[in-house]
Amino acid sequence: MIRETEYKAPGGLLTLILLLAGIGVSITTLVRGGQGSMPLLIVAGVVFTIVFIFMLAGIFVVNPNEGKVITLFGRYSGTEKREGIWYANPFTVRKRISLRVRNFETAKLKVNDANSNPIEIGAIVVWKVVETAEASFEVDDYQEYVRVQSEAALRTLASHYPYDAHQDNQIALSTHLDEVSVKLEGALKDRLTKAGVEVVEARISHLAYAPEIASAMLRRQQASAIIAARKKIVEGAVGMVEHALELLSAGNVIHLDEERKAQMVSNLLVVLCSDHDAQPVVNTGTIYQ
After folding, report:
1. Helix, strand, or coil (residue 81)
2. Which fold has domain 102-209?
C-alpha cells in the first residue's frame, strides 16, 4: 500500500523571480546578438529563453485545504500540502486533491428490511480525503468509490434491521435513527479507509415503505396505535372501577352482593371504554327488578 509522504518543495516565489529575470536577460542577449550579427549570442539567447520558459512549468500553487500529489516518470514523489507558491521538477506531474469536507446524498435505494418488507432508504454522507496517496493510487476514482461503497453499506445496514420495532428493546430503522446512523458510520469507515477517506458523519435522510406496501403498512400502524390506546383505556378503566368499589365499601355508602358488584363493574366498564357517550337508563323500581 502506498502511504503519503511529504514532498518538501522549495519556495517558488524566489525561483519565479529568478526565472523571469533569466528570461529577460536571454531575450536581451538575443536582441543584442541580432543587432550585432553575432550568431553565437543569438543561439545562446534562444536556447536559454526556451530553457527558462520550460523551467517555469515547475512553478505550482497550493491553495488552502488542498494537496498536490507529485509523480515523476510514474513514481510517487510525495504530496505538498503547505499552502503557497512552490517549485518542483518541470517533468513532474502534479495532481490536485481537495482536502475540504464534502457531502453527498445517496440515491433512494429500494431494499428489503430484516422482515423482508420492501422499503426506500437514503443517507447523507459527510467525508474528506486525509491520505492523498491512497486516494490517488489505491482506487481508480476515489469519488466514485465513496459513492458506490456508501450505497453498498446502506443496503447492508437496512437488511439487518426492521423498519418498525415489534419487540421490546429491538432496534428499528424508524425509531432508533441515532443508533442506526452510528452503525452506518462505522460500516463506512471500514470500507473507505483503504481509499484514504475519513467519514465525518453519516445519517439517514430518507426512510419510507415502498409504494406497493405503504398503504397496507399504514393500516397496520393505525391498528397497532388503536390497540395500544385501547389497552391504556382498559387499564385506566379497571383502576377507576376498583377505586370506586373501594370508596363505596370504605364509606359504607352501599353494600352490594357479588352479583350486583359484577353488574356495576360491567356497567362502569361499558361507560368508560365505549367509543360513544353512554345513554343512561333510569330504573324506577328496585335494583332487583
Report:
1. coil
2. Tetrahydropterin Synthase; Chain A (3.30.479)
